[in-house]
Design goal:
Radius of gyration: 15 Å
Number of strands: 4
Number of domains: 1
Distance between the termini: 42 Å
Largest sheet: 4 strands, parallel
Order of helices and strands: HHEHHEHEHEH
CATH topology: Rossmann fold
Strand order of the largest sheet: 1-4-3-2
CATH superfamily: P-loop containing nucleotide triphosphate hydrolases
Number of helices: 7
Strand content: 5-15%
Length: 170
C-alpha cells in the first residue's frame, strides 16, 4: 500500500469541488465557455490557497478528450494523467529550483513544438517570482507572441516581485 498525503488525496479535481475561490472559478469558466481563453494567466495568493490546483483543473479543461469545457470529464486518459501528474503536455516547472535564463531558453525552445497528445501545451510555472531578471527578459517575447498551441499558467505568492512587463501580459 502506497502512502499518499491527505492534501493530495483529497485535492479538488473539478472546479465544482473548489471552496473559497468562486471569483476565480467564474472568470475561468466564463473564458472557457465563451471560447476566449487568454494565452497567459497569473494565480496569486498565500501558500495553500489552491493556485496550483486551480491551474491543473484549468489545464484539464483545456485538454480533456471530450472537448474544451469548464467541466472536464475526469475519466479520459488525459484527465487521469493530469490528476496523476504525468501528462506529457502539462509541464510543471518549479521556478524556485529553475531560476536561470538557460532554463527559460529550454522552455522557449520546447514551446515551438506542437503538443504530443492534447490541444494545448500548458506550462505551469510555480513560484514564478523566483525567476531571475534575465530569465524574465528571455521569456517576454514568447509571452508576448506565444504559439497558438501554448498556454502559460503562472502561480506566485509574491506578485510584487514580477516585472510589470510580465504582469501586463497576463
Amino acid at each position: 500500500m502506497s502512502y499518499l498525503v491527505l492534501a493530495r488525496k483529497w485535492r479538488p479535481r473539478r472546479f465544482a469541488e473548489l471552496v473559497g475561490q468562486e471569483h476565480v472559478v467564474r472568470a475561468l469558466t466564463n473564458a472557457l465557455e465563451s471560447g476566449r481563453v487568454h494565452h497567459a494567466f497569473l494565480f496569486t495568493g498565500t501558500r495553500g490557497v489552491g493556485k496550483t490546483t486551480i491551474a491543473r483543473i484549468f489545464a484539464k479543461s483545456l485538454n480533456c478528450e471530450r472537448g474544451t469545457s469548464s467541466d472536464p470529464c475526469g475519466e479520459c486518459e488525459t484527465c487521469l494523467a493530469i490528476d496523476a501528474g504525468r501528462y506529457i503536455d502539462l509541464l510543471e516547472i518549479d521556478a524556485a529550483s529553475n531560476t536561470g535564463v538557460d532554463n527559460v531558453r529550454d522552455l522557449i525552445e520546447n514551446a515551438q513544438y506542437m503538443p504530443s497528445r492534447g490541444r494545448y501545451k500548458v506550462y505551469l510555472i510555480d513560484e514564478v517570482h523566483m525567476l531571475s531578471k534575465p530569465a524574465f527578459n528571455a521569456l517576454l517575447k514568447t509571452l508576448e507572441e506565444p504559439p497558438e498551441h501554448v498556454k502559460f499558467l503562472f502561480a506566485t505568492t509574491d506578485p510584487e516581485k514580477l516585472l510589470v512587463t510580465v504582469l501586463s501580459r497576463c
